[in-house]
Amino acid sequence: MVETSSPVTQPHSTLDEFLIAERDRFRELPGLDDVLRAVAGAAERINHLVRRASLAGVLGATGEINVQGEVVQQLDNLGTELFVEALRRSGRIAALACEELGDVLLIEGAEDAPFFAVFDPIDGSSNIDVAVPIGSIFGFYARSGKVSPESLLRPGSEQVAAAYIVYGSCTMLVLATKESVDGFTLDETIGEFVLSHPGITLPAGCPYYSVNEAYQDRWDAGMQRAIAELRSRCSLRYVGSLVSDFHRTLLKGGIFAYPADKKQPQGKLRLLYEASPLAFIIEQAGGAASSGRERILAMTPDAIHQRTPLIIGDSEAVAMVEQCVAQD
Ligand code: P6P
Questions:
Q1: 3-class DSSP state for residue 258?
Q2: DSSP label at residue 275
Q3: Quick one: DSSP state of residue 213?
Q4: What CATH number does the domain located at 15-197 have?
Q5: By alpha-carbon position, which residue is closest to atom 13 of ligand 1?
Q6: Cα of 88 to ligand 1 centre, how many Å?
Q7: Which residue spans of the chain are classified as CATH 3.40.190.80?
Q8: Ligand 1 atom 14: residue of nearest CA
Q9: Please, is 56 exposed, middle or buried when counting C-beta atoms within 10 Å of its C-beta (0-12, 13-18, 19+)?
């Protein structure tokens, strides 16, 4: 008689088994499961590269400057290539916007595919050379009408799903749909993401605040008051890698802020493929995300690389920041 409760015979569900078991939630979004499988497959390849970066000779910069005016790391290019190819091969993506690509990429022959993808393939790649966690961030929209570059300029509230991968002490994929937020840990012994954090909700309270305090003098007076309030009652944690700081906030509670400042009046982070996907995830988990003046998910980008200030995490803390900013 085979035991059915032992971890051997009843291991965690793999992502694939989860997608099959949760087929009802994808019934209205046929093909999204294929997109998620494609992203997970590319993430496993990127994880392999990240773990061996210095040995595989993929550390360091390429010498190129991207559309953002940032130095391109080798992993940026590899991540872009792997994710673009995986999304193309899924056959479910009509167009995509990517931090490393200047314009929207319309997928040839897939004009009628059901979804759009917006993503930052490797966020924080400058950290890879010093073994600091990095991440990939995705937002997914249902295609409506004839696809064009303007089709992707949608408010984050219209996303049907969002996800990120964090390549840290473990590699995790966190997936949010309108039903739940679920975390999958890469089990490298079987090469599968397995369900390790079912039904993630943002813990109450605000143990941590996460901001680059070096910019304090560059913030408006209202933001300085808000951060001073957080400083008085929270511990500071700042990795300097967005997905890592967000992942800690999601699992442990707290608030992350990348405010606008005198040098970066629109903030640094991008609305479409960084703030909006993370805002979708945090709101599904019970938190909030704001530019400081408006809800991130209500903001429609004017351009795919538009930047925004980002205040995200515990709803009460986010509201306090908004109140301070409003008093400016
Ligand atoms: P700063 C990494 O370069 C990044 O884009 C995010 O991952 C991170 O949150 C932010 O920049 C850190 O920026 O100005 O604090 O170094």
A1: strand
A2: I
A3: G
A4: 3.30.540.10
A5: 240
A6: 29
A7: 208-326
A8: 212
A9: middle
- Ligand 1 atom at minimal distance to the Cα of residue 269: 5
Q: Is any atom of ligand 1 closer than 6 Å to the C-beta of 133?
A: no
Full pLDDT tens readout for the chain, 328 residues: 555 555 555 667 999 999 999 999 889 899 999 999 999 999 999 999 998 877 777 666 777 777 777 777 788 889 999 999 999 999 999 999 999 999 999 999 999 999 999 999 999 987 888 999 999 999 999 998 999 999 999 999 999 999 999 999 999 999 999 999 999 999 999 999 999 999 999 999 999 999 999 999 999 999 999 999 999 999 999 999 999 999 999 999 999 999 999 999 999 999 999 999 999 999 999 999 999 999 999 999 999 999 999 999 999 999 999 999 999 8
Maximum Cα–Cα distance across the chain: 70
Task: Give 17's contacts (C-beta < 8 A, 6+ positions apart).
Answer: none
How far apart (Å, rounded) are the C-alpha atoms in residues 100 and 147?
21
Q: Whose CA is nearest to atom 2 of ligand 1?
A: 124
What number of residues does the chain have?
328
Q: Classify residue 45 by its DSSP letter.
A: H
Distance 241 CA to ligand 1 centre (A): 6
Locate CATH 3.30.540.10 in the chain: 15-197
Q: Which two tokens stand for residue 111?
A: 């004009």
- The token pair that represents 115 in the structure block: 């979804």
Domain 208-326 has CATH 3.40.50.150: no
Q: Tell me how far the alpha carbon of residue 122 lies from the centroid of ligand 1, in angstroms.
A: 12
DSSP class of residue 270? B
| Sequence-ordered list of residues with C-beta below 8 angstroms from that of 291, at least 6 positions apart, any chain | 267, 275, 299, 308, 309, 310, 311
If one residue of 242, 278, 311 were mutated to test the ligand 1 pocket, choosing by the most ligand atoms within 8 A of its CB, it would be 242
Q: Which phi and psi angles does 3 have, rounded to 5°? A: -60, 135
CB 283 within 8 A of CB 108: no
